Every structure is written in structure tokens, then in C-alpha cells.
Amino acid sequence: MRSDGLIVVEPQKVVRSRISGKVFILFLVVGLMFKGFLVAALGYSSYDARVAQLAQGSFVERGGAFLMQRDPISTRIAEELRPILR
Fold first, then answer.
1. d(CA 61, CA 22)
2. Does residue 2 have a pLDDT over 90?
3. How does DSSP classify residue 3?
4. Torsion over CA of 38, 40, 44 and 49, rounded to 10 degrees?
5. What mean pLDDT is predicted for residues 48-60?
6. DSSP-derived secondary structure for 14-78
7. By the 8 A CB rule, do 66 and 57 touch?
């Protein structure tokens, strides 16, 4: 309200996230590509053994092991990268 009694409506500030949807998707794609590269470079059994060893560690290492488990997308990426790396 101004000094003359007039009520003035002002727009509220919009709070925007610092991380946009595009950045989140890019981060997710890069993470899956990295996992696929590791699976292709190390091989399935070696990669699974390393993740299993990581799962025996501390709380943070168990969280990392959970994130680094093979999934269908990273396995498919590894299948495509394997001939290129060999």
C-alpha cells in the first residue's frame, strides 16, 4: 500500500532451481555412458566383482555400489561399445 492509500499489486519473485531439467538429463546420460564404458572395458564378471567388493564397504561405498549396479541401459551401451574397445 502506498502512502496515498492505493493498493499496488507487485509480482512475487519466482524461485527457480539452479539445476535445470536439461542439466539433470545430461548428468544422467553421462553417468549411464560412463557405466557402460566401464562395463565394456572391464567385462561383465570383473565389473560385477568390483561392484560386489564395493558393496562390502562403508555406508558411502554401499551407496556407490547401489548406483553402479549394472542396469539394462548401461548393459546395452556396453554391448555397443565393446566391439569398438576390442
1. 28
2. no
3. T
4. -20
5. 95
6. PP--SS-HHHHHHHHHHHHHHHHHHHHHH-HHHHHHHHHHHTTS-HHHHHHHHHTS--HHHHHHH
7. no
Residue 73 binned pLDDT confidence (cut-offs 50, 70, 90) = very high
For residue 17, pLDDT over 80 is answered with: no
Closest CA to 49 of 35, 65, 73: 65
* Residue 2 near residue 8 (C-beta atoms within 8 A): yes
48 contacts: CB under 8 Å, gap ≥ 6: 70
What backbone phi and psi angles, to 5 degrees, belong to 80?
-75, -35
Measured in degrees and rounded to the nearest 5, phi and psi for residue 77 equal: -60, -40
Residue 65 has pLDDT above 80, yes or no: yes
